[in-house]
User: Which sequence fits this backbone?
């Protein structure tokens, strides 16, 4: 039986997030009351996030670790690198741009302890929302998430959102096929649903980034998202 009492691991993929990392770390410490460790996954040694993280560690922070992406440059490789470093327990994906609502982490962890394998922060259920952000991106994301919930009965209105808590043992059962962008979050949700894992959502409010520039490239990544959208309509192997 899977042990659900393990320590929370936070995966933070970064790409030149040095200007905002101190604020993110302050927010993490303010909002997370549970025991945790954080893996900051970077692509290249010149990333300006590294000296900021190193300065935080030099001040005595023992929960923060730098991990170099060894799968393939980009967010998909960074997330997979982080996943591989977690042996067991809950795993949370957090973006470094302070867009995620970290006040929800305690509730997400409680649901994980109750036996859920995916706890999804949902912007499109009652109580959720988005503050600013590109209108086209919002519309397409909402249509995808809500339609997968209504038409395919995936138990979240926001399958594309990156802000999710996963069971690391579940992740080890999947062979990831995503190629670029943040599609990996949709792939995991779809595959978890088809394989019969337990998914639940809670409302979350997403804020557009306050530091740096978004790396989301809608039109180049859209075909990858569509792939996993239609994949969701395959027969389930277990319910």
Assistant:
């Amino acid at each position: 039986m899977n042990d659900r009492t393990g320590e929370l691991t936070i995966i933070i993929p970064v790409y030149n997030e040095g200007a905002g990392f101190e604020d993110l770390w302050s927010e993490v410490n303010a909002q997370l009351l549970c025991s945790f460790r954080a893996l900051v996954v970077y692509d290249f040694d010149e990333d300006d996030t590294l000296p900021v993280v190193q300065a935080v560690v030099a001040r005595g922070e023992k929960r923060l670790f730098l991990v170099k992406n060894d799968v393939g440059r980009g967010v998909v490789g960074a997330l997979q690198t982080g996943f591989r470093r977690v042996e067991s327990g809950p795993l949370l994906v957090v973006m470094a741009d302070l867009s995620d609502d970290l006040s929800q982490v305690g509730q997400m962890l409680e649901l994980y302890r109750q036996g859920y394998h995916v706890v999804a922060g949902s912007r499109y259920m009652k109580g959720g929302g988005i503050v600013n952000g590109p209108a086209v991106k919002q519309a397409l994301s909402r249509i995808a998430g809500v339609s997968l919930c209504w038409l395919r009965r995936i138990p979240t209105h926001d399958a594309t959102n990156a802000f999710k808590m996963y069971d690391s043992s579940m992740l080890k059962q999947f062979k990831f096929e995503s190629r670029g962008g943040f599609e990996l979050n949709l792939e995991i949700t779809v595959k978890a649903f088809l394989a019969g894992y337990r998914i639940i959502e809670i409302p979350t409010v997403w804020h557009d980034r306050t530091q740096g520039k978004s790396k989301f490239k809608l039109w180049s990544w859209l075909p990858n998202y569509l792939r996993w959208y239609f994949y969701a309509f395959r027969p389930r192997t277990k319910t």
